[in-house]
Amino acid sequence: MAAPATLSLRPCATVASSRSALPRARFASSCRPAPSLSISCPPRRFKGLRRALAVESDQQASAASSLKEEKPRTYYFLVANAKFMLDDEEHFQEQLQEKLRLYEERSMEQDFWLVVEPKFLDKFPNVTKRLKRPAVALVSTDRNWIRFMKLRLDRVLAEQFDAETLEEALASNPAELNFDKPDKWTAPYPKYESGWWEAFLPPKSSNGTA
């Protein structure tokens, strides 16, 4: 009787070694640093671009500033003969003083003036032919206030003009203002002293000459 056949399996060294090496290979691949991507641009191009943008910005700012300086300003005025404005109209001084006091309390810049014989009247022949001389103008950059004062004073002429500078707008011709005192004064308050308007004349002026 023949002996039964036996099958014996021997470990394969090649497969074992490859399996044991597999985790090491994975670990090694996971520890490798990721490739870095670098982009290099010529620095001169960026410097030139920044310089061009800076020059353009300066040019725009300079152009805007010059336009702002050269833009004329609009002035509004009421005009009448000097006796009516400064001597007959009893409440005119009070209104101007009240407005000036308000500006001082609020630290606001004065934007209204009295101008004796203003030079800008030469631009308005239709106005001057209706005026007795000497004339006095109330000038301001506040259109709404001038409209309000037109209603209060009533017998005045209103117009407007543009000027490059304040000095040009308030320029005036020399004039002497002398008003006779009334023989009788029936009002319950004293009459305003002559010269009260000097506080409202243009800067560096005492007789209406800017």
What does this structure look like?
The chain has 210 residues and is an alpha+beta fold. Helix content is 41%, strand content 13%. The chain has seven helices and four strands; from the N terminus they run ααβααβαβαβα. Strands 2-3-1-4 form a four-stranded antiparallel beta sheet. The radius of gyration is 45 Å and the shape is globular. The C terminus is likely disordered.
Key words describing this protein structure:
globular, 7 helices, single chain, 210 residues, alpha+beta, 4-stranded antiparallel beta sheet, 13% strand
Strand content: 5-15%
What is the subunit arrangement here? single chain
Task: Assign the structural class, choosing from mainly alpha, mainly beta, alpha/beta, alpha+beta, or little secondary structure.
Answer: alpha+beta
Q: On the 0-100 scale, what is the average pLDDT?
A: 77
Poorly predicted runs of 5 or more residues: 14-23, 205-210
How much helical structure, as a percent, in the residues? 40-55%
Task: Please outline the major beta sheet.
Answer: 4 strands, antiparallel
The gyration radius over C-alpha positions equals 45 Å
Shape: globular
Order of helices and strands: HHEHHEHEHEH
Distance between the termini: 149 Å
Number of helices: 7
- Sequence of strands across the biggest β-sheet: 2-3-1-4
Number of strands: 4
